[in-house]
Design goal:
- By secondary structure, the protein is mainly α.
- The chain has two domains: 52 residues; 202 residues, Serine Threonine Protein Phosphatase 5, Tetratricopeptide repeat (Alpha Horseshoe).
- 68% of the residues lie in helices and 0% in strands.
- The chain contains 14 helices and no strands.
- It is globular, with a radius of gyration of 32 Å.
- The termini are far apart.
């Protein structure tokens, strides 16, 4: 028996030591337990030495990272959006801003379902216009141009929806935000839609969120400026105009609108 086993035996409770002295089976049992403990400790030392001597390779790390990303994508795809169905989809979902997704995946979707006639709401590519918009927004929930088209579709009357879980432009925006809440363009487009729907307070919240994410973005400041002119908040509109035009925004509409509001004020 080695020193470790002896120390273990010494550490036994007094009643166990007494039992081991006065009963023959007990020493045999404890000796067996201690031998197994010794073998386990030897194995632990062997494994620890082996792993210390076997550095994790770059390829192993990349493989593990790929597995984590895969399962994260599956979890994101299965995410439920309250009142607007699941984000899970047979193809995707992909982030519209991702350079890799904007390659072959985006080409496949747009060539079949988001043609110029679909974007302009003139005619569907594979069936009703809303069917192709729905396919595009299930594959790319934050597809900016498709969101803009579905917003116009809704504002024009939207008598037909093909997806029973998603029956409004607002639902498509909620899905896009649930998918990628940091997409500033989605918040801006949603704000524009809500303003046109006559919901200024909801629109304000979306503009504020877009400005929080990208306070110096020219497009966001320009659109926010137009909104605040309509709300009679001329001073705030001027602030956004300053940022937008300072960043080189080309359209003069906001400047004109501010001047007109100042004259009629």
């Amino acid at each position: 028996m080695n020193e470790y086993s002896q120390s273990r035996l010494a550490a036994m409770p007094a009643i166990a030591r007494e039992w081991s002295i006065h009963s023959r089976p007990m020493p045999i049992l404890w000796a067996h337990v201690l031998r197994r403990s010794d073998r386990l400790n030897q194995r632990r030392q062997m494994y620890a030495t082996t792993y210390r001597r076997s550095p994790v390779t770059r390829q192993t790390l990349l493989t593990l990272l790929g597995i984590l990303v895969f399962f994260w994508g599956v979890a994101a795809g299965a995410q439920q959006v309250p009142g607007c169905g699941s984000l899970q989809n047979a193809f995707g979902p992909f982030d519209y801003r991702d350079p890799e997704a904007r390659g072959e995946p985006l080409r496949l979707v747009e060539s079949a379902h988001f043609t110029s006639s679909v974007e302009s709401l003139m005619k569907g590519a594979t069936g009703p216009v809303i069917g192709d918009l729905d396919y595009t927004l299930r594959a790319f929930p934050n597809h900016h141009r498709a969101l803009n088209s579905v917003a116009r579709y809704d504002l024009q009357g939207a008598k037909h929806w093909v997806n029973p879980a998603v029956r409004s432009a607002e639902c498509y925006f909620e899905r896009a935000i649930a998918f990628r809440s940091d997409d500033v363009v989605v918040h801006m487009l949603f704000a524009n839609f809500l303003a046109k729907r006559g919901r200024p307070e909801d629109a304000r919240r979306q503009y504020n969120e877009a400005l929080r994410i990208a306070p110096n973005d020219a497009e966001v400041n320009y659109n926010a400026g137009l909104f605040f002119v309509d709300q009679g908040e001329i001073e705030r509109a001027r602030q956004h105009a300053k940022v937008a035009y300072g960043a080189g925004y080309p359209l003069p509409g906001l400047q004109k609108k501010i001047k007109e509001a100042e004259v009629t004020k």
